[in-house]
Amino acid sequence: MSEATYLDATRTAYDTVAVSYEELLRDELDGKPLDRAMLGAFAELARDVPGGLPVADLGCGPGRVTAHLDRLGVRAFGIDLSPEMIAVARRAHPGLSFDVGSMTALDLADASLAGVLAWYSTVHTPPEVLPAIFAEYHRVLAPGAPVLVAFQAGDQLHHRDRAYGHEVSLDVYWRDPDAVAGLLADAGLAVHARLVRGPEGLELVGRQGRQAFLVARKAR
Description:
Order of helices and strands: HHEHEHEEHEEEHEHE
Oligomer: single chain
């Protein structure tokens, strides 16, 4: 699948589900202490980066995790491929900044971020595109800054024809945490910590399996 094809498919799907997605997942983090723990550790590492730089939530969707980072004392903003998701995020969190964009080519300066959050936002990315995306993360991160990547753990491709109450056409890649850690390392982002947990909440309904969280850092 070409880059343009998968980006178009992802944008169309999330434009379609944006409102329903926000309503369904608005309070999802409340029941996931391990997820909050990883976000808390990521936020602390980002706050330790000198210069008062912001953190980018890439693939931010309706902005719920961006807002969580803001409550943790991180100066966070969101970028998403879907204009409808960005519209929902701006309505839901008017005090935060959200813009349309693609993590394949970020409109951000080199070394301008104290952290990058990719909260399930690489799960639709074909494997051959991941190295370029991780290289882009490395480019925009300041020395010592962390990246947190969350995704479904496994080694298979799922195609979804329906999601969040809507018909869609969307590929979802479950990935081996060791393989993702290796790709991050190849991009100059050494994995600092990892968590793999069993499914919880709506993940049980959707049979989403194990969930993986990797924290990596750019060298100082």
